[in-house]
Amino acid sequence: MIFDIIKKRRSVFPAQYNDKPISRENIEKVLEAANFAPTHKKTEPWRFRVLQGETKEKLGLFLSLKYMETDPKPKQFKVEKLIQNPKKAAAVIAICMQRDPLESLPEWEEVAATAMAVQNMWLCCTEMGIGSYWSSPGLIKYMDDFFELNSGEVCLGFFYMGYYDEEIPEVIKRPWQEKVTWM
């Protein structure tokens, strides 16, 4: 049942991934799930770029060099993490949002629709036993130096994917009742 999958969804980080590849068919299934996200005025703003193989390594190198270039006091552990995370993932999907050229709705609605598409991806990965994680480093503002982004398109982060071996612990959330006011 979907409720059980929602409760089971977790961030599974690249350090937890094993070396098992993800088939193109499974990546396509995850992307198809994304495409069924709700979208106001049917703008369907989500755009994805799938990185595998050498392209993942190029991404890690780009991010680490951009970090060293832009941070006045770069930390070596962060440089290494930026290089290694894409290598550890079976696939990295760049999460992008294409702004409606007519600006027929507020930008936040298109960002929200893209986030819903990513949630669909995450739930699909959970069902398929694929670990995933949405990373939004500050460096995403430089992604137009790495990808050819269209006019009005912006990168919102990276969706790391990989199989994992360890048990993912259950997360304890505060009761939903603490976050709801009945009127």
TrEMBL record:
<dbReference type="InterPro" id="IPR000415">
    <property type="entry name" value="Nitroreductase-like"/>
</dbReference>
<protein>
    <recommendedName>
        <fullName>Putative NAD(P)H nitroreductase</fullName>
        <ecNumber>1.-.-.-</ecNumber>
    </recommendedName>
</protein>
<dbReference type="InterPro" id="IPR029479">
    <property type="entry name" value="Nitroreductase"/>
</dbReference>
<comment type="similarity">
    <text>Belongs to the nitroreductase family.</text>
</comment>
<feature type="binding site">
    <location>
        <position position="40"/>
    </location>
    <ligand>
        <name>FMN</name>
    </ligand>
</feature>
<dbReference type="InterPro" id="IPR026021">
    <property type="entry name" value="YdjA-like"/>
</dbReference>
<dbReference type="InterPro" id="IPR052530">
    <property type="entry name" value="NAD(P)H_nitroreductase"/>
</dbReference>
<feature type="binding site" description="in other chain">
    <location>
        <begin position="134"/>
        <end position="136"/>
    </location>
    <ligand>
        <name>FMN</name>
    </ligand>
</feature>
<keyword id="KW-0520">NAD</keyword>
<keyword id="KW-0560">Oxidoreductase</keyword>
<feature type="domain" description="Nitroreductase">
    <location>
        <begin position="6"/>
        <end position="163"/>
    </location>
</feature>
<keyword id="KW-0288">FMN</keyword>
<keyword id="KW-0521">NADP</keyword>
<keyword id="KW-0285">Flavoprotein</keyword>
<dbReference type="GO" id="GO:0016491">
    <property type="term" value="F:oxidoreductase activity"/>
</dbReference>
<feature type="binding site" description="in other chain">
    <location>
        <begin position="9"/>
        <end position="11"/>
    </location>
    <ligand>
        <name>FMN</name>
    </ligand>
</feature>
<dbReference type="Pfam" id="PF00881">
    <property type="entry name" value="Nitroreductase"/>
</dbReference>
